[in-house]
Specification:
By secondary structure, this protein is an alpha/beta fold. It folds into two domains: about 180 residues, 3-Deoxy-D-manno-octulosonic-acid transferase, N-terminal domain (Rossmann fold, 3-Layer(aba) Sandwich); about 170 residues, 3-Layer(aba) Sandwich (Rossmann fold), CATH 3.40.50. About 40% of the residues lie in helices and about 15% in strands. The strands form two sheets. A seven-stranded parallel sheet has the order 3-2-1-4-5-6-7. It has a six-stranded parallel sheet with strand order 10-9-8-11-12-13, sandwiched between helices. The longest helix has about 35 residues. The radius of gyration is 23 Å and the shape is globular. It starts with 9 loop residues before the first helix and ends with a helix.
């Protein structure tokens, strides 16, 4: 018996994939149109017009961004403006809300979501997801303007390369993110995007929760260990040396890996889980909402993760951080800008550095950091610098994109 071996070169394979993707997009669009027409005939209510076109559409790639989008959706609801909300989390908290004007839809994850997004029809599409028109997520001809909002008070330059390049509008939490974005645009000689400083809805939510929260009840100090993902994070630099030293303090150690670590750092997380499975003062935390653990913790230990600023800016607590001198920025936009990032420069003003040389004295250093007021001034300065428009970000975002949608509508009428 003989077999015929077929070989498809990469270029042909890519072309075939594009053809198949186009077929799926067309089929999906046809089915969606049919569904909308059926709903219209049956009297159903939709966030879009009968041709599937939204005035406002929001996309969330994960339920962990609920605290970023919830205030925006609440603002739409309060103004009685219809908005579509597409999510890649089937258990997104939006589905437990009784909205009248917010219309949620689970669109799947990965390629399934991209097929839907690539055929989207909207005047304005708002998202926190970087990488538009870089890999699988392509611009849809049916979308007027793509708008990016930040979900953290971290650097705009630590997005993966080209993460913001193809958005039409970027709404930032503070001036420094806007300044960093302009640096990259200038360096790469691309046109300046429309942009504005609106604040950070996520911080607004945390700050409001903190006002109402009771003081956590505990009998021991709680140390939150929250590394970033990837090989520049301290999991790879320190291995389990840092965890061993923390466990030896006798304090309650809570390990909260970055969600991306469960994919990118799977092997090292499995080793940590196996080694410390029976350790009585070591536990894991993967709550969708990190408020409770941030409120409970006496100290945060991290590297360059954005959670550093959640902990210091909102809760006013100091941190300990591992060295970021060997941070590999080759895949980030920061590689284009030869300037020390604010997120690294500010670390010594809001906390104490940990190195392998001082792990033996870690308990005393933790106690000194928690009890000291030497970082209070730095924390206040970081809050004032990185977080603008306190408590009003959602209002500013909806105002901005409502004006943007009106401009799109006015231009269409002129044509």
């Amino acid at each position: 018996m003989s077999f015929v071996h077929l070989y498809i070169d990469p270029a042909t394979g890519s072309m075939l994939f594009s053809v198949l993707l186009g077929v799926f997009i067309t089929a999906g669009f046809f089915l969606r149109m049919l569904f909308i027409k059926l709903k219209t005939v049956l009297g159903g209510k939709s966030a879009s017009t009968t041709d599937g076109h939204h005035k406002f559409l929001i996309y969330s790639d994960d339920k962990r961004y609920w605290n970023t989008f919830m205030p925006v959706l609440d603002e739409f609801e309060q103004r009685e403006i219809d908005v579509g909300f597409w999510t890649s989390s089937e258990d997104d908290p939006v589905f437990s809300k009784e909205y009248k004007y917010v219309h949620p839809e689970f669109i799947g994850a990965g390629n399934k979501a991209f097929v839907k997004l690539n055929a989207a029809r909207a005047d304005v599409l708002l998202s926190t997801t970087p990488g538009l028109d870089v890999l699988q997520w392509k611009r849809s001809k049916g979308v007027g303007k793509y708008v990016h909002i930040f979900h953290a008070a971290t650097s705009a330059l630590t997005y993966r390369m080209f993460g913001l390049d193809f958005y039409d509008v970027v709404l930032t939490a503070s001036d420094f993110q806007l300044e960093e974005m302009r640096m990259v645009e200038k360096k790469r000689k691309i046109a300046q995007k429309e942009a504005a400083v609106v604040g950070l809805t996520y911080f607004d939510v945390l700050a409001e929760k903190l006002k109402k929260a009771e003081k956590p009840q505990k009998t021991n100090k709680v140390i939150l260990l929250a590394p970033s993902w990837g090989k520049s994070g301290f999991l790879y630099k320190f291995g389990d040396k840092l965890i061993d030293a923390l466990i030896d303090t006798g304090y309650e150690i809570v390990f909260r890996p970055h969600p991306q670590s469960f994919t990118a750092d799977k092997d090292i997380l499995e080793k940590i889980r196996a080694k410390y499975d029976k350790c009585p003062n070591f536990s894991w935390n993967s709550d969708n909402d990190n408020f409770d653990i941030l409120n409970k913790a006496d100290l945060l230990i991290s590297d360059f993760s954005g959670v550093v600023f959640d902990f210091t800016i909102i809760f006013g607590k100091p941190i300990m951080y591992t060295s970021v001198k060997d941070f590999d920025d080759s895949v980030y936009d920061s590689a284009w800008v030869k300037k020390e990032l604010w997120k690294f420069k500010v670390l010594p003003t809001i906390g104490c550095e940990i190195s392998e040389d001082n792990l033996d004295d870690l308990k005393n250093r933790i106690d000194a950091t928690i009890s000291s007021d030497k970082y209070d001034k730095g924390i206040k300065a970081a809050r004032d610098y990185a977080w603008k428009n306190h408590g009003h970000a959602a209002e500013a975002i909806v105002n901005y994109i409502s004006d943007l949608q009106q401009r799109i509508s006015d231009t269409a009428e002129v044509k």
